[in-house]
Design a protein that fits this description.
The chain is mainly alpha-helical. The chain is 61% helix and 1% strand. The protein has helices at residues 2-12, 14-22, 36-57, 65-74, 79-106, 115-137, 142-153, 162-170, 177-209, 224-250, 275-280, 291-307, 309-312, 316-346, 350-374, 380-385, 388-399, 413-419, 422-429, 433-436, 443-450, 457-465, 471-475, 494-500, 503-506, 521-528, 536-551, 559-564, 566-579, 606-614, 640-651, and strands spanning 25-26, 222-223. It has a two-stranded antiparallel ribbon. α4 packs across α5 (79-106) and α27 (536-551) crosses α29. It is elongated, with a radius of gyration of 33 Å.
Length: 659
């Protein structure tokens, strides 16, 4: 071994290099406050190693980026761990840099002759923030896409060259494939290269000028080895343990739903280390044309002041000023970050933000499950766009919820409640589990959202029932117009039809109590005149009719029951035609031009729903009802594909893959 080392030393001078590295003099001895530089070097090394392996599985294309990250996160062996380490180490780096900067300023290590090295450190901080910004977009999910769009829109405010600079950064006038490739080139090539050069220069200048001892100097000088090395190793291990703990708790890093430029993301926020600037720009002074001051001028002056600290610190009062101003900056940034978080979870716009987070979480979990079960033939976004469970609910909320409800909601709340867990929401929003559990939703937020108005009554009812936690509440806090048409949850199911045939239920808000049909022929001639007088045997006929009519829908959820109850269905059909006389007003089995009510042939089936949504004024539905439900298909409000998604969602006709 000695011969090998002697041979290497003769060719490389390794012994001399080792002595210079390990036996550097430390004035005043080793200290824990000196560990920040070493921990930063360690985390940058970790980022380079994990980044290279992530690069091996990543595709920098707007059509494949999300899919490749999903593969790394959910399919590749250990991919979630690798991605989690890279993500959470990136989260801790700004903290370590700020601690290092504070230590340098407090100890006066920025003063002559160390000014250039200090400026290198400031540039390193800016480079790390730039790496974080560019890396945020690479998963190509909704969160990263819209946060990057918000951030890069500020470039447009740069005086004289703003629009041209913005086009250069995003690769044109639209955010898309070229934006992603440019950010990837910056993140994986340009910025790491600059980072290495700055680190080499920083270390060289550090070794040239030595350590500035922390005052007061109470210990004798010592060498870097072994005392300071031990402290540095312990600090790096502590960082490693902290990162791994968060990675294991969160199972890697969050991946939102695929980026969709056509679907704005109401929860678009920069990552936490830019939240202070996001909140700063909300101050009233920066409204309108003054926005350039909050986005460009004032932050620029703050960075310039930090760079001028070596000159200001030449005087004793100047050093005190520098220490004070850095704490003012950090305190202000911390306060603004806290205010931004509070506004998101309990402020005026909290419902919009939380709804966006919930919707994104629901879509992300759904598309991940679909990709695992069905594979991705085209893109993950197309997989989601063609999914009735997500798109049907969204289309219903947009176009149908002004008149109809779905279980008392606008159609989205049910899916949000069942698809998103409290832990997931807590991770995404920073809210504690106490805030999210049962009836422990923040009382001030809840009081403001519930109020005493009639339109909030469904929310209060849900609270009373404690239905699956607060998600229903959060998802449906936006007041809707009073419903003027039946609630369509369970539409055409046996229970839904049987309740419809109950006179009291018919008059409730769930069905036709708030519609023009309240006093129509259905109620007057049949429910009020006949059904109210039915005895027990006659009510059994209604049960059979509900089963028979529901069988027309061919609902996937009750296919087995329909097959088993074939005899009861035939009996119900007979009751419907002969005993109850539904065919006096409705067509059933064959067209009836004299029918007053909707055709019951295929009632609740996919085609029946599509036909009534496309044109409710058709002669087999409500030809005299043209002032109520729009003809969504005839008027081209919805495409045939969109109407089909609504129909499939209402019928529960979509896959439920195992996660």
């Amino acid at each position: 071994m000695k011969s090998l080392i002697d041979w290497l030393d003769h060719r490389t001078g390794i012994r001399r290099l080792t002595r210079e590295a390990l036996f550097e003099n430390i004035p005043g001895g080793s200290r824990w406050r000196y560990v920040w530089g070493s921990t930063l070097t360690f985390t940058i090394f970790v980022q380079f190693i994990t980044g290279i392996f992530l690069w091996m599985g990543y595709s920098a294309s707007s059509g494949d980026a999300w899919e490749s990250v999903n593969y790394i996160q959910n399919e590749m062996t250990g991919g979630w761990l690798l991605r989690g380490i890279h993500h959470w180490t990136a989260q801790i780096m700004p903290v370590l840099l700020l601690l290092h900067l504070m230590q340098v300023i407090v100890d006066g290590a920025y003063k002559a002759p160390r000014e250039v090295n200090y400026w290198f450190g400031v540039l390193l901080l800016l480079l790390v923030l730039a790496l974080s910004l560019t890396g945020y977009l690479l998963p190509w999910d909704q969160k990263g896409f819209w946060a990057t769009k918000v951030a890069t829109n500020l470039i447009n405010l740069v005086p004289f060259v703003g629009p041209e600079l913005q086009q250069l950064v995003i690769g044109g006038t639209e955010y898309g494939h070229h934006t992603l490739t440019r950010f990837f080139a910056l993140h994986a090539g340009v910025l790491p290269g600059l980072l290495v050069l700055l680190i080499v220069g920083h270390v060289y200048l550090f070794r040239r000028h030595g350590i500035t001892p922390a005052e007061p100097v109470t210990k004798r000088d010592a060498y870097f080895w072994p005392d300071q090395v031990f402290k540095d190793v312990v600090a790096c291990l502590a960082v490693t343990v902290a990162v791994l703990a968060v990675v294991l708790w969160s199972h890697g890093a969050h991946l939102g739903s695929p980026a969709d430029p056509s679907e704005p993301y109401s929860a678009a926020r920069p990552d936490w280390y830019f939240l202070f600037l996001f909140q700063f720009l909300k101050l009233p002074f920066f409204a309108g044309e003054n926005e350039v001051w909050g986005a460009i001028y004032i932050p620029g002056m703050a960075v310039a002041l930090i760079c001028l600290m070596p000159f200001i610190g030449r005087w004793k009062v100047g050093h005190v000023f520098n220490v004070g101003i850095i704490f003012v900056f950090l305190g202000g940034a911390g306060a603004l970050t806290y205010l931004a978080k509070q506004e998101d979870v309990a402020g005026q716009n909290s419902e919009t933000y939380l709804r966006g987070v919930l919707s994104d979480s629901r879509d992300a979990q759904r598309v991940t499950a679909l990709a695992k079960a069905k594979g991705i033939e085209s893109t993950a976004l197309s997989l989601l766009k063609n999914d009735p469970k997500t798109q049907g609910a969204r289309l219903f909320a947009q176009h149908c919820a002004s008149c109809h409800r779905y279980g008392g909601h606008d159609g989205l709340a049910v899916d949000l409640a069942t698809d998103v867990t409290p832990d997931d929401l807590a991770k995404r929003t920073g809210m504690t589990s106490r805030f999210l559990s049962g009836d422990a939703v923040h009382p001030d937020w809840l009081a403001r959202k519930t109020g005493t108005q009639d339109e909030w009554q469904p929310v209060k009812s849900i609270l009373k029932a404690k239905a699956e936690g607060p998600f229903d509440v959060i998802a449906s806090v936006s007041p809707l117009e009073k419903p003027s048409a039946p609630d369509l949850k369970g539409f055409a199911s046996r229970q839904w039809i049987r309740d419809l045939l109950d006179p009291d239920q018919y008059l409730s808000a769930r069905y036709f109590g708030d519609t023009a049909h309240r006093d129509g022929a259905m109620y007057k001639k049949f429910l009020n005149r006949k059904v109210r007088k039915y005895d027990a045997d006659e009510l059994k006929m209604l049960d059979a009719i509900a089963v028979a009519l529901s069988a027309q829908a061919k609902l996937p959820a009750q296919a087995a029951r329909d097959q088993a109850d074939a005899a009861l269905i035939r009996q119900g059909v007979q009751h419907l035609i002969d005993d109850i006389g539904c065919v006096d007003c409705h067509a059933f089995g064959e067209p009836d031009p004299d029918a007053d009510g909707p055709d019951l042939t295929g009632y609740g089936s996919r085609q029946w729903i599509i036909d009534i949504v496309k044109n409710p004024e058709h002669k087999k539905f409500y030809p005299d009802n043209n002032d109520r439900m729009p003809a969504f298909g005839v008027k081209k409000i919805l495409t045939d594909a969109e109407i089909g998604l609504i129909a499939d969602w209402l019928r529960g006709d979509y896959p439920e893959p195992t996660r």
